[in-house]
Backbone:
């Protein structure tokens, strides 16, 4: 008995130390990336701004990058770092955040294709997987034009930032130094490593790895204990399902994981799509925590873009979860797509290739011509 308690204590200590180490690496990599972007040559910055000056291209860059690395937490943290460095304006960054929300839905859609040998489960699995896609795509269709013409989301984030009294980018830079909390270490790395591009690659790998470690460490501990109680406890009403999605994703730092684990329950029919939808919407809210953490101790601009991520998902939640009649639309489209894909299975693969890869890459390539 005592041996079991001792093992549990050691397990908890390892769990806490792993999280703390990953969090330190996460904050360090963000500071290194922000500082390095500030030192990039004007030509590099001009090329970057030229590539994403078109909001439509910026949107699809966000989709493609997030689809490739399969982590909206990582891609939005990257955007926060670039905005904090002053290399990217808030208005140009907003479409990338919107695109990241679509790109992160790829995982659950791919997982749903694994049920292709069972027609009945395949239809429900596809519907469950793409429901996250359709929710984010529909939210972008509504909010992208409003942001493009009226800057609704970006202006609202600026107002909130001013309201909470965030310091300006200049004040933050003076307070923490060019390289933020890890000034001495990061300045040394910049001096030792001659290529700034290599430094950015190192910081990106460290950022991605730290988020993955946080995600896997927590998910192993939480998902196993919660899985058995999904249906009987957390899906009795929309509020509980939404809360589970938001809290679980906020803790795990990965909407890809929390939306993927629900696919088997949807495929087998244990939980209906109408009950799964609030959970997915909650997961979208929970995933914004990473960007908000990344923006702490940085500039006003960084907090602005982090709030954009939160507000985009919040407005989507209000539209599709609180407005009567509207909340049925993503579920209805998902069900129809599931039935269509069951009849013509190639549609599922074609959908993934076009939405997440062919369309974004084609537009990015055409923009460079």
Residues:
């Amino acid at each position: 008995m005592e041996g079991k308690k001792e093992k549990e204590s050691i397990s908890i200590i390892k769990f806490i130390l792993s999280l703390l180490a990953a969090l330190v690496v996460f904050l360090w990599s963000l500071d290194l990336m922000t500082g390095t972007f500030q030192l990039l040559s004007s030509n590099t910055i001009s090329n970057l701004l030229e590539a994403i000056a078109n909001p439509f291209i910026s949107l699809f860059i966000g989709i493609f990058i997030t689809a490739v690395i399969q982590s909206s937490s990582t891609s939005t943290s990257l955007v926060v770092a670039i905005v904090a460095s002053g290399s990217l304006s808030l208005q140009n960054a907003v479409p990338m955040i919107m695109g990241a929300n679509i790109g992160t839905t790829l995982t659950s859609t791919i997982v749903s294709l694994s049920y292709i040998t069972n027609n009945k489960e395949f239809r429900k699995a596809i519907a469950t997987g793409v429901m996250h896609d359709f929710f984010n795509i529909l939210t972008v269709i509504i909010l992208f034009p409003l942001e493009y013409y009226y800057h609704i989301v970006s202006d609202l984030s600026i107002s909130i930032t001013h309201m909470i009294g965030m310091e300006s980018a200049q004040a933050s830079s003076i307070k923490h130094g060019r390289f933020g909390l890890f000034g001495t270490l990061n300045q040394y790395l910049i001096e030792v490593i001659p290529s700034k591009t290599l430094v950015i690659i190192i910081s990106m790998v460290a950022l991605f790895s730290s988020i993955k470690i946080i995600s896997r460490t927590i998910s192993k501990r939480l998902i196993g204990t919660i899985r058995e109680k999904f249906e009987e406890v957390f899906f009795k009403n929309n509020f509980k399902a939404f809360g589970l999605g938001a809290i679980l994703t906020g803790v795990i730092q990965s909407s890809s994981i929390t939306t993927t684990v629900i696919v088997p329950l949807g495929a087998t029919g244990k939980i209906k799509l109408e009950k799964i939808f609030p959970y997915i919407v909650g997961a979208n809210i929970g995933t914004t925590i990473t960007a908000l953490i990344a923006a702490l101790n940085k500039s006003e601009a960084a907090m602005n873009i982090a709030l954009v991520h939160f507000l985009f998902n919040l407005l989507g939640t209000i539209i599709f979860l609180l407005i009567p009649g509207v909340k049925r639309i993503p579920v209805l489209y998902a069900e129809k797509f599931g039935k269509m894909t069951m009849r013509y299975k190639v549609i599922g693969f074609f959908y993934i290739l076009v939405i997440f890869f062919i369309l974004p890459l084609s537009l990015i390539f055409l923009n460079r011509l």
In short: Residues 2-39 form the longest helix (38 residues). Confidence is low (pLDDT under 50) at residues 168-179. Residues 54-169+211-368 form one domain. DSSP finds 20 helices and no strands in the chain.
